[in-house]
Request: fold
Amino acid sequence: MDSKLKALIVDESSIRAAIIEDGLREAGFTHVVRLETTDRLIARIGEIDPDIVVIDLANPQRDTLEQMFLVSRLVKRPITMFVDQSDSEQTRAAIEAGVSAYVVDGLRGDRVKTIVEMCVTRFRAYERLETELSEARNALEDRKILDRAKAILMKARGMSEEEAYGLLRSTAMNQKKRIADLARSVVTASELLG
Amino acid sequence: MIELSIGYLPLTDAASLIAAADFGFAEGQGLRLNLHRDVSWANLRDKLVVGHIDAAHMLAPLAIATTLGVGQVRRDLKAVFVLNENGNAITISPALAAEATALHPGALESCAQAALALGAVVAQRKAQGARALTFASVYPFSAHTYLLRRFLALGGVDPDVDVEIVVVPPPYMVDCIDKGLIDGFCVGSPWNSLAVDQGKGIIVALGCEIVPEMVEKVLALPADSPLLGNGVGEKLVRALDGAARFVADPAQRTLVSQALAQRFDLPAGVIARSLSGALLLDAAGRQRVASGFIRFAGEGLNRPEPDTARRIHADMVAAGQLAGAEADVQRAADVFDPALYDRSLGVASA
Reply:
């Protein structure tokens, strides 16, 4: 029976969905479908008939899923949200990580628990990755702006790179600003002045 | 200052909560309300159940369903304050409106005419073997589901057999009707008006025309919440009581709609319209005015009444969501517990 386990991932982040898909395959799910847009969610669930549905909590269609699992003629087997009665910490962790899982009745409890644990860990890791990425992007952006501001000062005031940097740094300190923000003002002013 | 986290969805009926946070009513009670906007009722329920938030803006029937364990999660909740009555409307696609008007020329004139006309459409489609109509509600356990079912029944439609009822989150309603995935919907404010403004929908019935005093949203707490025993719940109810009367005051409508617009990223004009009860029904500018379109305060509206819970329980049974077990009626009634409300506002408990 295990070789026929089917999973559905509803997640607008395709990268994260791919990471979850890998995890589900490792857990023995041979048939994994990812839905990024949820336009035809209702019809698709009927077609796929999944044993487990993993959904990102940022997706408003969670309410649509709950209705379907309650009444829809399209859903062939009863599916309920996975809540581990013996371990409310896990439910809390899943909500904080931003993921929820609905499972078909009869899928073994400990097995589902492992899968939900995997989802939580991977959702958290993905969030860390996103934060790091955005920090790295900002740092790169800051560096570019700083380089442009230095070049402007070097040209306008005949300074060396070191002097231009020193001026930016001391001015930023005096004005209690971030050096990158000050550099951005220099670049903007220079663009305005032509 | 005592800090409380409260979750809400971007709907006009979150107004009293937002006014309590933004216009000093909470501060006046020594509270700071951190309001968290969410995207689904399921999320709010789960966050409340695991203690991620202290209280939630909640569909009145969802508080009962969660307590009875008929939804996805079972946990005893208390509705400590009724946030509003009414505020919903039923909107249909321009194509369905044309089909209805062709069969019944007065279809768009009133709620009753619209119900009869849709009954005629359903009967004709059945006779011709055409596709059955699909209507959307916002959640299975909601006033929207029960209003939609009653409205359809007025026109002789059996909501369980003749049509399909699905759930679509409010922000997706307009898109779904535009793509032809649904033919009509019942949703709260300001989403009907947004559909009208975009020429994608025509309002055919106001919730208050179907049921004049339908309890809509409540503030829900877990039944074992510390707020119910440590004196903080009383402060919260008093803050909400002041805020509800402020929201109900027509003189504050501009201020309130601006505060909501800012929190929801929606235009203030459309929110002001839903607060006023003067609704545009279609792109041609037809209007319907109903003073009871949405109500936030007055005449004991905010006090949770066990009888309200019994009525909602009956709606759930009629919708086939519950068997009518006698024990469930009492458990449902216990959800709408006026004790905290009465303690907070100095009303002698009945």
